């Protein structure tokens, strides 16, 4: 039975400092190996193993000595203790020392008389709950922040990291040196990869380490060598190289090497040189900052001369290509915020050529804005100057958006009691754009100011069984216009006043229902809506921001046929519809929602983008250059029958459906259906179908970018299947049925292992703005590879965010 001694000593505290030397690094190494159990390795139970990437985990065993009430107290247990007359002490035979959370085991521990040094040898083991350190022997200087541990092995429990070093030295306060060191995150006995270095220095104060003659080994085969390597040793942001991104496509190799600059705790920057074999060297950068009440970013890219070697026709060969996007947002006070933004690009195809993941880019414009708002108890105010650069090449004058210089908005609401309410909506805007006013339609040729006031008065009576809401809005709009050099008979100070009246009503019937041994609540909700907008002459009004809305379920209940304020569509119609919901009583979740509705018109809709109340749109027989749907949409006596369905079939399957059917011509105008599968383990399958009749959008004419002189039909299949905790299979196929071609094909594999990950994706796609015109489409394909060494970083192009957008419902396993 061993003797037990208790005393206060700094020994364990200094040993802990040496432990942190290894723990801070994330690595140490040599050829000797220990059995897994000596590294506190615990395999998973059979029931757990199938769901884990690693074969086990590192778990610290229980302390051999109990904790003392005073954390500074040193507990000692040893079989033998020899003391010399001069004060020297030798502890032998399975010596155990504990101080606080740190416990040291060794065969022998020697304490000199001056107590300036501790020598420990023989199966040295040091644990503190976060890490394990083993070694043959150690020397610790108690008053000089110096220590040496020889033939060491270490484990970081939470980081799943282990390593070795022939010698570990503490060479100063929070500074350490490791000789002949390695580290890896692989399971014991599975050195898939490891980092090896002859000399590693760590500085905890600066948060950095350096390694000389470092090499990366895969299966003991060296694959990369650094004469000198600098790396972070904690989770703080540090200046240095980030993981590179490499892409391969039919145009060649695309290599980007980000460099991160930690300027200050609230400032940083990322500089990314990017070499493309088909275009040249592109320099990208991003600067971020965070102040007390504001934050912002500045990003941009610059290519001095486009080599123009892309497979696609590149008319920008030899030209500068660039973009800049700066944003700043802050708070004026508790009720007021402001936003500033400026974006610009050298040309409309910049982001198509350079900006997207896997060749994809969703930027369609660059915003310029200065905005401040106020949110009071009664009033909401907004002041802004705003404009957009439309990213399209070539860009016609008629497609350029108007700038708002400035736009002032004031809105408020009042509850007057007994269901009566009033609203105030107002806006004053000056519109401008840089175009040749002689080359655009007359209604778009003007610049100038617009004052738009829309006070409203309404009443809503609501009971549990239904509601009714009559409402009237007065639209008053006044302009001050300038047509420049355009000769016109239009007035420069037109005005418009028109009332928009509607009555919305509905009933709610409920009943209890049992289906499949489950209790539900079923509703039946008929709805009736009447809207009246008188026909008002608007031929003298410009067209700054209005667009006729395509018909939908929401349009059944809206009195507004146009977006924006420049057009108010004449309307005299009744909409009738019914909706039924199936609500699961146990949790209130809607299992099924089904609705069908239709509008009946009592008058033609003559107001279109021209604003003429006396003339119907031309029919295709009169003018072949008009949208073939416009005349029919204006004169039909009833809307398409709108049907929608949202059905949560069970916890895994759901579907959604929308169908617009013209019961007069007996044809479908638009339909879409989606079938979705979601498995608790992460499997995802999506199948979608979309159909749209030729020229369905009533607001466009042939020649517009959004006009389609064909019936659009597409199929979209995507899936992500987690074949195991290690393997994700992904794919997508988007088919253009109209032109019998694929718009996108994607297939990928993601392999996740305990200490590494691989992502391999093949993609072929069409850069398509308007499916009707295929001669101007861009086609491309590429093979994309990303390889990650867990705990060290990775090489390749990050794809997770693209997969989440392309495959709805998929959440990629992080590499």
Structural notes for this entry:
The chain is 5% helix and 55% strand. By secondary structure, the chain is mainly beta. Among the domains are: 32-60 and 154-236, lipopolysaccharide transport protein A fold (Sandwich), CATH 2.60.450; 245-379, no CATH class. The protein has a 32-stranded antiparallel beta sheet that branches. Strand 17 and strand 18 (252-256) form a beta hairpin. The radius of gyration is 36 Å and the shape is elongated.
General form = elongated
Largest sheet: 32 strands, antiparallel
Helix fraction, binned, reads: under 10%
Task: Give the end-to-end Cα distance, rounded to a whole number of Å.
Answer: 51 Å
Residue runs with pLDDT of under 50 for 5 or more positions: 1-30
Brief summary of the model shown:
By secondary structure, this protein is mainly β. The protein is built from five helices and 49 strands.
Features:
55% strand, disordered N terminus, lipopolysaccharide transport protein A fold, 13-stranded antiparallel beta sheet, 815 residues, 5% helix, mainly beta, 32-stranded antiparallel beta sheet
Which helices and strands, and how do they pair?
Layout: E1 3-8, H1 11-25, E2 41-43, H2 46-49, E3 56-58, E4 73-78, E5 80-83, E6 89-99, E7 102-111, E8 117-127, E9 131-141, E10 146-156, E11 161-172, E12 175-184, E13 193-203, E14 208-218, E15 221-232, E16 240-241, E17 245-249, E18 252-256, E19 259-264, E20 267-276, E21 280-290, E22 294-303, E23 321-333, E24 336-345, H3 350-354, E25 365-375, E26 379-390, E27 403-417, E28 420-432, E29 447-453, E30 456-459, E31 461-463, E32 466-482, E33 495-507, E34 509-515, E35 518-533, E36 547-548, E37 562-563, E38 571-584, E39 589-601, H4 630-635, E40 641-647, E41 653-662, E42 667-678, E43 684-692, E44 712-722, E45 727-736, E46 741-752, E47 756-767, E48 778-789, E49 793-796, H5 800-806
Antiparallel strand pairs: 1-4, 2-3, 4-6, 5-6, 6-7, 7-8, 8-9, 9-10, 10-11, 11-12, 12-13, 13-14, 14-15, 16-19, 17-18, 17-48, 18-20, 19-20, 20-21, 21-22, 22-23, 23-24, 24-25, 25-26, 26-27, 27-28, 28-29, 28-30, 29-32, 30-32, 31-32, 32-33, 33-35, 34-35, 35-38, 36-37, 38-39, 39-40, 40-41, 41-42, ...
């Amino acid at each position: 039975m061993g003797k037990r001694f208790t005393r206060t000593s700094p020994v364990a505290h200094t040993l802990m400092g040496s432990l942190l030397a290894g723990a801070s690094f994330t690595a140490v190494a040599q050829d000797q190996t220990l059995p897994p159990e000596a590294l506190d390795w615990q395999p998973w139970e059979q029931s757990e193993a199938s769901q884990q990437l690693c074969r086990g985990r590192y778990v610290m065993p229980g302390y051999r000595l109990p904790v003392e009430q005073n954390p500074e107290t040193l507990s000692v247990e040893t079989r033998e203790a020899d003391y010399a007359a001069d004060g020297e002490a030798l502890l032998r035979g399975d010596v155990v020392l504990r101080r606080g959370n740190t416990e040291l085991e060794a065969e022998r521990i020697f304490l000199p008389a001056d107590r300036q040094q501790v020598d420990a040898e023989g199966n040295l083991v040091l644990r503190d709950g976060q890490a394990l350190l083993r070694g043959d022997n150690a020397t610790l200087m108690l008053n000089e922040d110096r220590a040496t541990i020889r033939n060491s092995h270490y484990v970081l429990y939470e980081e799943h990291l282990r390593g070795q070093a022939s010698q570990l030295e503490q060479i100063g306060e929070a500074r350490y040196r490791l000789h002949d060191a390695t580290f890896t995150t692989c399971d014991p006995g599975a050195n898939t990869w490891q980092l090896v270095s002859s000399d590693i220095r760590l500085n905890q104060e600066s948060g950095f380490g350096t390694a000389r003659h470092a090499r990366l080994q895969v299966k003991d085969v060296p694959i990369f060598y650094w004469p000198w390597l600098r790396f972070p040793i904690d989770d703080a942001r540090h200046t240095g190289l980030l993981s590179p991104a490499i892409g391969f496509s039919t145009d060649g190799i695309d290599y980007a090497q980000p460099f991160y600059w930690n300027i200050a705790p609230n400032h940083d920057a990322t500089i990314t040189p990017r070499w493309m074999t088909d275009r040249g060297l592109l320099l990208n950068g991003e600067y971020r900052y965070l102040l007390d009440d504001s934050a912002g970013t500045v990003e941009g890219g610059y290519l001095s001369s486009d080599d123009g070697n892309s497979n696609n026709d590149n008319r920008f060969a030899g030209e500068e290509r660039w973009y800049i996007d700066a944003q700043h947002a802050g708070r004026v006070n508790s009720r007021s915020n402001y936003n500033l933004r400026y974006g610009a690009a050298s040309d409309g195809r910049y982001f198509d050529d350079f900006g997207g993941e896997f060749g994809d880019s969703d930027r369609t414009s660059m915003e310029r804005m200065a905005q401040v708002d106020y949110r009071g108890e009664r009033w909401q105010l907004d002041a802004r100057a705003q404009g957009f650069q439309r990213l399209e090449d070539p860009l016609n004058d008629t497609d350029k958006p108007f700038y708002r210089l400035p736009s002032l908005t004031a809105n408020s609401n009042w509850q007057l009691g007994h269901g009566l309410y009033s609203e105030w909506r107002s806006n004053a805007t000056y519109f401008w754009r840089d175009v040749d006013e002689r080359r655009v339609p007359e209604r778009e040729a003007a610049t100038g100011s617009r004052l738009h006031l829309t006070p409203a008065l309404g009443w809503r009576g609501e009971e549990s069984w239904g509601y009714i809401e009559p409402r009237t809005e007065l639209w008053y709009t006044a302009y001050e216009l300038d047509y420049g050099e355009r000769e016109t008979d239009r007035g420069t100070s037109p005005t418009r006043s028109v009332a928009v009246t509607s009555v919305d009503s509905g009933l709610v019937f409920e009943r209890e229902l049992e289906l499949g041994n489950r209790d539900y609540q079923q509703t039946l909700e008929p709805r009736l809506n009447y809207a009246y907008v008188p026909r008002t002459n608007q031929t003298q009004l410009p067209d700054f921001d209005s667009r006729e809305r395509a018909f939908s379920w929401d349009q059944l209940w809206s009195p507004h046929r146009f977006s924006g304020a420049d057009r108010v569509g004449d309307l005299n119609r009744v909409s009738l519809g019914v909706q039924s919901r199936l609500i699961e009583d146990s949790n209130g979740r809607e299992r099924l929602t089904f609705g069908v509705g239709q509008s009946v018109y009592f008058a033609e809709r003559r107001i279109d983008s021209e604003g003429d109340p006396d003339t119907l749109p031309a029919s295709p027989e009169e003018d072949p250059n008009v949208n073939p749907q416009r005349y029919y949409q204006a004169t039909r006596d009833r809307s398409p029958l709108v049907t929608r369905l949202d059905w949560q079939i069970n916890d895994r399957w759901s579907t959604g459906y929308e169908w617009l059917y013209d019961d007069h011509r007996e044809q479908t105008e638009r339909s879409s259906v989606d079938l979705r599968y979601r498995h608790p383990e992460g499997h995802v399958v999506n199948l979608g179908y979309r159909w749209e009749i030729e020229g369905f959008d009533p607001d466009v004419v042939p020649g517009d970018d959004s006009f389609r002189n064909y019936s659009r039909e597409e199929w979209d299949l995507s899936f992500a299947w987690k074949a195991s905790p290690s393997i994700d299979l992904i794919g997508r196929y988007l088919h253009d049925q109209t032109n019998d071609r694929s718009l996108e094909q994607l297939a990928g594999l993601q392999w996740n292992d305990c200490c590494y990950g691989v992502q391999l994706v093949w993609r072929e796609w069409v850069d398509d703005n308007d499916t009707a015109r295929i001669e101007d489409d861009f086609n491309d394909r590429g093979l994309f590879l990303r390889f990650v060494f867990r705990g060290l970083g990775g090489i390749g192009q990050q794809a997770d965010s693209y997969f989440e957008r392309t495959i709805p419902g998929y959440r990629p396993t992080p590499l």
